[in-house]
Amino acid sequence: MNRIAVLKTRVVGWFRRRLIDEAGASLVEYALLLALIAIIAIAALVFLGHSAANVLNNVANNINNPG
């Protein structure tokens, strides 16, 4: 076989493997989404943690001491 035919065979085989095997790509996408959600949740807790704690403490105090 000449070099062009070998190159064509390798390129076509590479594309077929990439098109058939999509499970790895979707797994990576889900992992990236999960990491992004975790980063956003941690950032929200860091920036809003004190105010959220104050609100919850006020609610608890009002429940314990009505009036």
Salient structural properties:
2 helices; 0% strand; rod-shaped; mainly alpha; 67 residues
Topology summary:
Blueprint: H1 3-20, H2 23-64
Describe this structure in a few short sentences.
The protein has helices at 3-20, 23-64.
* E-strand count: 0
Percent strand equals under 5%
Distance between the termini: 92 Å
Task: Name the poorly predicted regions.
Answer: none
Assign a percent range to the helix content.
over 70%
Arithmetic mean of pLDDT: 81
* Number of helices in the DSSP assignment: 2
The SSE string, one letter per element, is HH
CA-based shape: rod-shaped
Sheet with the most strands, sense and barrel status: none
Label the structural class.
Answer: mainly alpha
In angstroms, what is the radius of gyration?
27 Å
Folded structure, characterized:
The chain is rod-shaped and about 90 Å long. The protein has a domain of 45 residues. The chain is mostly helical. Helices cover 90% and strands 0% of the residues. The longest helix has 42 residues. The chain is built from two helices and no strands.
